[in-house]
Amino acid sequence: MYIPRAFSVDDRDKLRDVMRENGFATLITHDGKAPFATHLPLLYDGENCGLGRLTGHMARANPQWKHLAEGVEALAIFQGPHAYISPNWYQVHPAVPTWNYVAVHVYGTATLHEDAAWMGALVRRLTAVYESGQPVPWQVDLPADDEAQRMRGIVGFEIPIARMEGKFKLGQNRSPEDIAGVHRALAGSSHDGDQALARFLEREGLGG
User: Fold this and answer.
1) Which of 27, 59, 92, 161 could form a disulfide with 51, with the two C-beta atoms 3.0–4.6 Å apart?
2) Residues of the chain with pLDDT under 50
3) Using alpha carbons only, how large is the chain's radius of gyration in Å?
4) pTM value?
């Protein structure tokens, strides 16, 4: 990923926060002929494993798990808040439009899992994470035969993280007045994505 110095983020805690808060990722591999991408939820686990690891599963009918089985390096992309930025929000001119965004790229080689116990634990953990905001969280409680059949239809994997890089393009190369103007416009927008980026600016100390 192209990362100008002003936008480079090496703070592992910040990168981990982005991954945990934006767990629906894009997993990219290459089969030797062309890149291949799958959009799927990934769980980040940072305990007792270096930079951490990602875990997830995909449909057995998805050929990408065969790329992982061959030991090719995978790239997982986590997209944080992003928004269009108008030159009208700047104090310093001339200026041009741009797009500000938060992205984390994670690289590693996967290990596949087809063991029913491992797969069952992963599915229950994923469900618990994404059901946690529900008034009455749904529990995985399927008949044994049904669960076994569903497990045969997916392949699990974990990716120990070899390296990761973060790009927070938030206008850090602009003047304080321009940054403040962008924050005001985003915070005052009716668009959820704009407001999410405004909150992220505040978290980064760029809230004007």
Assistant:
1) 161
2) none
3) 20
4) 0.94
